[in-house]
Specification:
Length: 170
């Protein structure tokens, strides 16, 4: 019993060390975690064909079993979300699953508003030009400082959730 508890404390220390990096330091977090015995594995969602259904097809996705174990469910709908980041214990029990975007990034709300504004009739442009303007504006948003803010927010959210798991448990 004592050995198991000691091993558990050691694992928590590794994760605590992993979560101690400042926000926005993803590379350092990964390198720091690896140097403390944490392991990073990346499993591609798709093969040559992009999965569009709510579940991965084993005939078309080499990692369908993994993808289907960590599907994103929103408003009653199931999605194969990219990125999905799953943190597991050495016993392969899930600690935390991160899906797609930080909570502060409201992609659909932004896109819908920007599309609505792009659709506003302007005497000097047609529908195709309005669509092109939306694509340019969306690209400009991704090139703006807000993109880095949202990226840092994603790292902050992941680190905060992992730290909470260490302090509070499940």
């Amino acid at each position: 019993m004592g050995d198991a508890m000691s091993a558990g404390r050691q694992e928590r220390r590794k994760i605590a060390s992993l979560t101690a990096a400042p926000a926005g330091q993803t590379g350092k977090v990964v390198r720091g975690g690896q140097s403390r015995g944490a392991e990073l594995r990346i499993f591609p969602r798709d093969s040559r064909k992009l999965g569009r259904g709510p579940r991965a097809d084993p005939a078309e996705s080499p990692n369908a079993d993994i993808v289907n174990a960590f599907l994103n469910v929103k408003d009653g709908q199931t999605f194969q979300t990219v990125p999905t980041v799953v943190f597991l214990t050495k016993a392969l029990e899930p600690l935390y699953t991160y899906f797609e975007f930080p909570a502060i990034y409201h992609k659909m709300r932004l896109a819908e508003e920007m599309q609505a504004r792009a659709g506003v009739n302007r005497a000097d442009e047609n529908r195709e030009q309005a669509s092109e303007r939306f694509i340019r504006d969306w690209g400009a948003l991704q090139d703006s400082p807000f993109w880095q803010v949202w990226t840092s927010a994603a790292v902050d959210e992941i680190l905060s959730a992992l730290r909470e798991r260490l302090v509070v448990g499940s």
